[in-house]
Amino acid sequence: MDYRIDHNQIKTTVKDFSLEDTLTCGQCFRWEKQEDGSFLGIVGDHVQRVWQKGEELIFDQCSEEDFRSLWAVYFDLSTDYCQIQNNLCDDKTLEQAIRHAGGIRILRQDPWETICSFIISQNNNIPRIKGIISRLCQQFGEVLPSGGYRFPSAEKLASLKIEDLAPIRAGFRGKYLLDAAKKVVSGEVNFERIYAGSLTDGEEELRKIYGIGKKVAQCVLLYGFYRTEAFPVDVWIKKVLKEYYPDGFPYLDQPYAGIAQQYLFHYIRLLEKGKIPEE
DNA sequence: AGCCAGGGTCTGC
DNA sequence: GCAGACCATGGC
Question: Which H or E run includes A90?
Fold first, then answer.
């Protein structure tokens, strides 16, 4: 990954990449857009500010080591999305979706944080998901030296009682979070098994957790384990499948089906919000 | 007021 | 296997 250092910043060139779409498309929930146009986010114990200016991605106050070992990986900068898109472009709907959402990358996120995030996502909307996660971190995450809070560990959540979670206002999802924490801490749900096993095995492993069904499991596999063949079906994707693929989605068995899913998810939401002008 | 939000569980058929 | 009730909360 090529990069250069410039005044305490690291800059790298990105093609067909959209920082904003990547960070606001509903795969992650701990990045906030700032008034200066940058995004401020917390990943692990790193608080980071990132800008995109044209084809340049700029990391503020960032060491080379952190860029190489953390951010280039997190933003999936080494994957050739152009090649994947070329394979999907034969399809007319996907061609349109890629035109409007093709700048999205699948982030390589932490499995535990992703499990919690998508448990919280169920029957919920993105702004409120972010609010609940923010309160969860503020209440139970360690304070970071550079400000902000770390995502709370499974051990920490496992030590809590359901009433402790009341302030985060997660509703009925609170008990699911505690069950997830217990099963991750005990080893009943084992991440190594998920990394090593098939997609089906991974789904089965995650569904041991009370409150994780098929959709949330697929989201966790796609966003938390970088299993790009996972294909989460939510209400929006159901609409897409019904409207545009009544005879079945032709890329379901492809290794990048989940990337196609993300393009379609973003695209249908833009359409419904009227953000895409009539053809 | 009623409906919906990146759903899941439980029950009844 | 599938439909329906129910689950908390908040925005519109």
Answer: none
Q: What span, in angstroms and rounded, lies between the C-alpha atoms of A24 and A6? A: 27
> Residues near chain C (nucleic strand), Cβ < 7 A?
A 123-125, 127-128, 166, 169-172
pLDDT tens-digit map of A136-150: 999 999 999 999 999
User: What confidence score (pLDDT) does residue A274 get?
Assistant: 84
Name the nt closest to A237 by C-alpha to C1'.
B6
Question: What average pLDDT does the structure give for chain A?
Answer: 97
Would the pTM count as exceeding 0.85? yes
Tell me which nucleotides of strand B come within 7 A of a protein CB.
4-10
User: A12 near A56, Cβ under 8 Å?
Assistant: yes
Contacts of A230 (CB under 8 A, 6+ apart): A199, A218, A219, A221, A222, A257, A258
Distance A260 CA to B4 C1' (A): 25
Predicted confidence at residue A5, as pLDDT, reads 96
Please give the single-letter amino acid code of residue A225: F
Angle, helix A81-88 to helix A257-272, in steps of 10 degrees: 70
Partners of A5 in beta bridges: A10
Contact A193, A178 (CB under 8 A): no
Residue with tokens 């080494």: A78
- Residue A243 host element (H or E): helix A235-244
